[in-house]
Fold this sequence. Notes:
By secondary structure, this protein is mainly α. It has one domain (about 5-240). The protein is about 65% helix and about 0% strand. The chain has 13 helices and no strands. The longest helix is centred in the C-terminal third of the chain and has 22 residues, at about 220-240. About 40% of the residues are buried.
Amino acid sequence: MSIWGSVIGGIIGFSFGGPFGALLGSFIGGKISSSGNTFNNLNDQKQTQQFFAIALIVLSAKLSKADGLVSKEELIAIKDKLNIPDSEIDNVAKIFNKAKEDKTGYEPYAEQISNLFKDKFNVLEEVINILFYIAEADGRVSNSELKIIEHIAHIFGLNHSQFESIRESRKSSDKMNPFLVLESSPEDELKTIRKRYIKLSKEHHPDLLLSKGVPEEVINESKKKMRSINSAWEKIQKLKVS
């Protein structure tokens, strides 16, 4: 069963405060919780996937307004690139439209996401990766979109090197800087870079991300990240040996 079909129903049973609780409660028919963020442990994989899906929809809606308009390309991307089936688009559209109309900025939502995934840092990095994926839908990432994604990354606790690694890995193999992808510099010794390569390979392996709650519907972007990490390591080995 698609994760999207159980997104709304799967969350209703939990006491869920903060901005997400207010947003979801506004169209479900009452507040899910009015006493803070009591939904604060993401230990169940399905539950984690449900929240991850909602987080993507809400942040995508906020991001789509960054340059002053929601383009048709971006709307298509949110449907197609997140693998939302036609049968589930109505439920997803409800969340997206409520988030788009909501006067609350993206910051409180990012803070709640950061809190709920505080023990799953690689999942937070994957949220940033997919936000780039959505922003690229119309052919370019605008400056306003870039600023929002960078600020969300900061709220998540990513440092500059981690953010640049994700951003650089979005480029084609022939254009990316392999040192940025592996959070390294040309001056670093090969053995030091290898350690970073191994660390990043483990953190961004699709199987690990699936076990941490990243839905299978969006895992293809994680696979692209892994290919970028492997390609960067191959390039650096050739540069260092030659």
